[in-house]
Design a protein that fits this description.
It is globular, with a radius of gyration of 15 Å. Strand 4 and strand 5 form a beta hairpin. It has a single domain, classed as Alpha-Beta Plaits (2-Layer Sandwich), CATH 3.30.70. The strands form two sheets. Strands 1-2-6-3 form a four-stranded antiparallel β-sheet. It has three helices and six strands. By secondary structure, it is α+β, with helices and mostly antiparallel strands. It comes from Alkalibacter rhizosphaerae. Part of the 50S ribosomal subunit. Contacts protein L29, and trigger factor when it is bound to the ribosome. This is Large ribosomal subunit protein uL23.
Length: 96
Amino acid sequence: MLSPHDIIIKPIVTERSMDDIGENKYTFKVKKDANKIQIKNAVETIFGVKVEKVFTMNMNGKMKRMGKYLGRRANWKKAIVKLTPDSKSIEFFEGI
């Protein structure tokens, strides 16, 4: 069994993700094989909030080049978590 800290890898801090905080949506990079139920339980356990809905998407790694050699960054999974209206905000994102 994976611990919640193994499922949630890191938060994603971009302009768009910061705008979504006004709608109670928070964005995280998550483990590639985690499902929506595991992500929901991990966020509720770590941050002590109630999750209404989870949106997930698989992100393809970008093509990168070093001289004449081509390579690709690793594929990863992104999760956007929508909190319930009566839930408090996640304190990690408050100072950003």
